[in-house]
Design a protein that fits this description.
The chain has 21 helices and 15 strands. By secondary structure, it is of the alpha/beta class. The protein has a seven-stranded mixed sheet with strand order 9-15-14-10-13-11-12, with helices on both faces. The longest helix has 19 residues.
Length: 514
């Protein structure tokens, strides 16, 4: 009888700069007989290609398609460190000063990270690999068999770099190394796109005060333990005899296990909820219809709701519904009525992944059109999910500002909505919510129904980015101009106190709900 070998493990290895991910990961992979790749090589390769062709390192629209021209090769020892650009070896170009200076800019661009995401995942086909980076366990491989976070204090990492360069530990250059490394940590952890954060289920390996070999030993031990625990125990002869081929048993055996070792919220159940939430379903269900009804009842109980321009909502085709965000009431007021004016379709939203762990509520949103994104890496995941939804012809509700305004006035918007509109061609419906913050202020657990206030929601005319951008605009300027055009149309639907930094843009608009 031929047996199928158990696939080797896929390991996600994250950590800050100079934590030793590449050297430790490669050494551990060699001892374990696994392949190894540091995903930073993709970004260096794309940066080298951009420099070769004169493409600006912040031009995401031009850079994203170029990712398909980058390929990796094995160096002969299982390490994927050879770089091919358009089929030609370009490995030596990756360590130039010019690439060093520009690669961090390239790596921050959502379109680039989205374009490279599947390329990185494809490397794990067949298993047996350690993949190193800064968002591997949280974004690239959230279902990896083992997640490791290799860390050390800033002082420890700086001292290693100082020793590698042969610098005087007390000299000015050493002080500069420490300062730059601290600044790099702050940048990596605080950036909007794919910030450095350990996955919730990652195994932490701290190398403070221990040598290289001891650190490799810890990684090897963690991988060995994970692989051994994932191998099923041999089935005994009596168990085989007991196992019956009766149809009802066979049917039960095919059903996935819905429990985990802890006995708490089953991991399989959570994955099932996420699987449901990721479905590209465009039909309203009894749940979304019922929830919308309850939201309308709640909204009417705490305020008087008035709508203008509801007929501007499209009855078919994709649409980006862009709303200002001043209160927790925004989603209830706008969403509950939008759902009733877009035909038999349902709305789609993006929500942080942890919401799906909340009992009952997690089940409701999984069936209600909310799609999960990782909170610490929401820009990359949101961009990918939103693009798929719009290209499939669905309706997506977004808040261009990203978070609620503390004072009710428009804040500076992110470029994400403009990028989606430019990339998909979907029309945008601007929506202005007025005075919801007076009913439910930011920071309050519940709304204040007294005194009873009126909340006015205005829907503007749909438009596309192509209609508002100059024909000769360069790609670098297009995102900013498109963002201002979107926010200007939202501002025109708002009372003056809400317009904030987009007041001048609002003044330039036509009557938007006509």
């Amino acid at each position: 009888m031929t047996t199928t070998p158990t696939p080797r493990i896929v390991v996600a290895l994250d950590g800050p700069a100079s934590s030793g991910k590449s050297s430790v990961g490669a050494a551990a992979a060699a001892r374990l007989g696994l392949r190894f790749v540091d995903t930073g090589i993709f970004y260096r390769a794309l940066t080298a290609l951009a420099l070769r062709e004169g493409v600006a390192p912040d031009d995401g629209v031009a850079l994203a398609p170029m990712a398909a021209r980058v390929a990796l090769g094995d160096d002969g020892s299982g390490v994927l460190s050879r770089v091919l650009l358009d089929g030609r070896d370009a490995t030596d170009e990756l360590r130039s000063d010019a690439v060093d200076a520009a690669v961090s800019t390239v790596a921050r661009i959502p379109e680039v990270r989205a374009a490279l995401l599947q390329r990185q995942r494809d490397l794990t086909a067949g298993g047996g690999i350690i993949v190193a980076g800064r968002d591997i366990g949280t974004v690239v491989l959230p279902d990896a068999g083992l997640k490791l976070f290799l860390d050390a204090s800033v002082e420890e990492r700086a001292n290693r770099r100082i020793a590698q360069r042969g610098l005087d530990p007390q000299g000015e250059e050493a002080a500069l190394v420490r300062e730059q490394l601290g600044a790099r940590d702050a940048q990596d952890r605080g950036r909007e796109v794919a910030p450095l954060v350990a996955a919730a289920d990652a195994v932490h390996v701290n190398s403070d005060g221990i040598g290289f070999d001891a650190t490799v030993d810890q990684v090897v031990a963690a991988v060995t333990k994970a692989e051994s625990s994932s191998v099923p125990a041999p089935e005994s002869a009596s168990a085989k005899a007991e196992r019956s081929p009766r149809p009802e048993r066979a049917e039960r055996a095919e059903k996935p296990d819905r429990s985990d070792a802890t006995g708490d919220e089953p991991g399989a159940k959570r994955n099932r909820k996420l699987e449901i939430a990721m479905r590209m379903d465009n039909h309203r269900t009894w749940l979304t219809t019922g929830f919308s009804f309850l939201c309308r009842c709640f909204a009417r109980a705490v305020c008087s709701v008035q709508f203008e321009g509801l007929d501007n909502l499209p009855k078919d085709g994709p649409a980006i519904i862009a709303i200002n965000h001043i209160s927790s009431l925004d989603a209830l007021v706008a969403g509950a009525w939008i759902n009733e004016h877009i035909g038999d379709r349902r709305m789609h939203w993006l929500g942080k992944r942890s919401l799906f762990d909340i009992p009952v509520f997690g089940w409701m949103i999984a069936y209600g059109g909310v799609h999960p994104v990782d909170r610490g890496n929401a820009d990359v995941e949101a961009y990918r999910l939103a693009s798929r939804l719009l290209k499939a012809g669905f309706v997506l509700i977004v808040y261009p500002e990203g978070t609620r305004s503390p004072d009710g006035a428009l804040q500076e918007a992110k470029d994400g909505v403009a990028m989606l509109a430019m990339g998909t061609g979907a029309p945008i419906v601007p929506v202005g919510v007025n005075d919801a913050d007076l009913v439910w202020r930011k920071g309050r657990a519940l709304p204040s129904p007294f005194p009873r206030r009126k909340v006015t929601v205005r829907f503007g005319k749909p438009f596309t980015v192509a209609e508002v951008l100059p024909k000769d605009v360069d790609r670098k300027s297009a995102k900013g101009l498109a963002t201002r055009a979107i926010m200007g149309r939202i501002a025109a639907l708002l009372d003056p106190r809400h317009r904030g930094i987009y007041a001048d843009d609002a003044a330039a608009q036509d009557t938007p709900t006509a």
